[in-house]
Amino acid sequence: MDIRALTPDYAVSPQIDPSDLPAIKAAGYVTIIDNRPDGEIPPDLHTDAMRQAAEALGLTFVANPVIGGALTMDNVTAQRAAIETSAGPVFAYCASGNRSSVVWALAHAAEMSADDLIGIPARFGYNLEHLRPTLESLSRR
Question: GO terms for molecular function, please (predicted)?
């Protein structure tokens, strides 16, 4: 497991396993966001299995599947709501952590500069430069 903290309250990661959840909880995360559609992964990592394992540890679990290349504003709204309503730090995962970074950036376009929203994930190898026009457009709303 590779926790990549974009901010003190939001981290992303490539796919996790139920056995990773105790370490995630021990690291202080209280909400888990699954940005991976079940169709991409084996049954033991599907939403229901991950939800049961997370909730058994007292973690809040949110399923917000983001289909590669088909991100919607509903995904962005759901991610933002999960972050805003979390009682503490949020841990989001997908295949690589990229989609979890993208929805985070889009969800924060009104509060942070495009440079920061692109630069922060870039520290972990996520290239969000292609989002610059969208982030700038959303910041002007």
Answer: transferase activity
**SS3 of residue 132 by DSSP:** helix
Nearest CA to 121 among 140, 108, 138, 104? 104
Listing from the earlier edge strand, what are the strands of the sheet with 4-7? 4-7, 10-13, 90-93, 31-34, 60-63
User: According to the model, what pLDDT value does residue 77 have?
Assistant: 95
Task: Give the per-residue SS3 of 74-110.
Answer: HHHHHHHHHHHHCCCCEEEECCCCHHHHHHHHHHCCC
**At 54, phi and psi to the nearest 5?**
-65, -50
Tell me the pTM: 0.94
For the chain, what is the mean pLDDT? 94
The stretch 16-27 carries a mean pLDDT of: 96
Residue 89 maps to which CATH number?
3.90.190.10
